[in-house]
Amino acid sequence: MSKILFLIPYKTLVPYIKEILAPKYPDIEVVLVNPRTAVPLVQQYSAQGIEIVAARPVTATAIQQANLGINVVTIPITSFDIIRAINTAKLQGKKIAVVAHSAMVLGIDFLAKELGVEIQYYFTKSGQDYEAPILEAVANGAEVILGGVLAVTAAKRHNIPSSLIKIGDESIFQAAQEAMQIQAALENESAKRGFFNTILDHTNQGIITIDVDHHITAFNPIAQKLTKTNKTNALGQPIEKLLPQFTLLKTSSQKETATHSIIDVSGNKVMYNSVPIIINKKSFGAVISLQEIDKIQQMEAMIRKEIYARGHVAKFHFENIIGQSPAIMNTIEMAKDFAATTSSILILGETGTGKEVFAQSIHNESSRAKGPFVAVNCASLPGQLLESELFGYVGGAFTGANKEGKPGLFEVAHGGTIFLDELAEMDYVNQGRLLRVLQEKSVTRLGSYKVTPVDVRIIAATNKDLEALISEHTFRDDLYYRLNVLRLELPPLRMRKRDIHLFVKGFFDEFATSTGKRFNLTNDAVKLLEDYSWPGNIRECRNLMERIAATAKTDIINRSILAPLLNPQKNLPSRTPKEKRMIKEITNALHEAHGNYTVAADILGVNRTTLYRRMQRLNIDY
């Protein structure tokens, strides 16, 4: 849509000009105007969106001098227009007086000479009264007044012959073409501004631009947020007044770039960069970018996750944990409390009790839920390989190493959680390196001296008695105390009798999808499962149900079908030499203490809770 307005001072010309513009420029608006009232009229149209005004020289000059902030195109007076006006004037008299603005009659001297007429000149200024120069011209012998609408109108009031310098078709088309070119340039500039403003408004950095005098010329929403300053209050202000922390003298005047400076802005630690705006080797100010340190760290975590941690996702949530028994409900409640903290967690429990399920649920309940969850089985890798996997290495660090190096799993887990399963199997050297990660919050790759900060929560798990391992000097006591900030003990399945039928039903439903079979347990079968010791816990239960789903010939599972598969006597937890030794030590201590648990714990050098937990795990009844 055109935003161009043509101002025409001659009434009979308005419909004519509309007619000649219509085929090529149908959207240009044409209105009648008195040059003396043009300024307020243009103000009205400007408020309606008009950006370009075309007018004859006198009117155009008046609008320009009013500083309305609108683009003005002068409708030119061509040689053809002047020739036509002189020829008309010659018919009324030989002595012609030109009463007009000088811009209207450029080159008239040459034309008058060629046309053989005598012309007197009475040049006027914008806003000047035309009566006096017209009367002066007549007094000096002029027979015809030649000029614009104001001059001709004044001459007619005194019945003085006159000739109007009319606007010709050439002038109209020339002005229209120029106005359209200006409109195209304005639209192009507007698009650039819109593009620039969109970038400013949607970038994740605060952006401030200043001119060569340090006055603020742009101030985006993130800059407003970081500085706690409204854009309206900031624009036009000296940057030093608003943000005295900024030292931009070298940037704006000496054209030096300042990068990665950390300052305090409204209580936030912010990194800022300033870059000079140089055009044709001349400085026009500077661009300042602001980033919160916390946001940079979050972005870094996202990048690390995107590059290194694809697939490191925790699938389980607390609602996925099966169970209604008090033992498991209390454990879940405690785990949720732990999830709300940032401390390390040590999960203890027998094999198959769901330690990783709890670790994933804690991660998904925590503030790190959007970060990676990296699980590592410390028993599955030999010491040197575990070291390179956990801490990473640089190219050429050892024979067979990737020439480009590799980030360790602690780097991969940055911003998230690392789950160290079977922690007790970690060798003593790597235990020391793990302790340093906990203390210093950083890692050093093998073969490198560069320290990389990491923000990782550690959840460790084991089915071993770490205190016993400490006494045997196979586990570091300092690492134990670092990890044992929050301790979560998972109850074995034999202590969750009321949950067993829930697991059985859940596993049968899972296998029904692939086998198409639906099973039900008789009451005596349920009783048998509840009385079973389940040395393999939930994992053993799942394996048993999978076997039944694959081999059972009937949908009703009773005691006689289950008994051969369980055989409680053969499936009691086997005792390792170490466990047999511990049973003997605990029994002897209790005997010596005459059954007093507190005294027995002192004899063994452990606390009463640890003694009670060991007795439960080893099924010691005294």
Written account of the structure:
This protein is an alpha/beta fold and 622 residues long. It has 27 helices and 24 strands. The strands form seven sheets. It has a five-stranded antiparallel sheet with strand order 10-9-13-12-11. A hairpin with a 2-residue loop joins strand 12 (268-279) and strand 13 (282-292). Helix 18 (428-440) packs across helix 20 (477-483), helix 21 (497-515) crosses helix 22 and helix 22 (523-531) runs parallel beside helix 24 (559-566). It is elongated, with a radius of gyration of 46 Å. The model has no long low-confidence stretch (mean pLDDT 82).
- Global structural class: alpha/beta
Largest sheet: 5 strands, antiparallel
Total strand count, please? 24
Beta-strand residue fraction: 15-25%
State the separation between the terminal residues, measured CA to CA. Answer: 96 Å
Calculate the mean pLDDT score and round it.
82
Unreliable segments of 5+ consecutive residues: none
Q: Calculate Rg over CA atoms.
A: 46 Å
Biggest sheet strand order reads 10-9-13-12-11
Helical region count?
A: 27
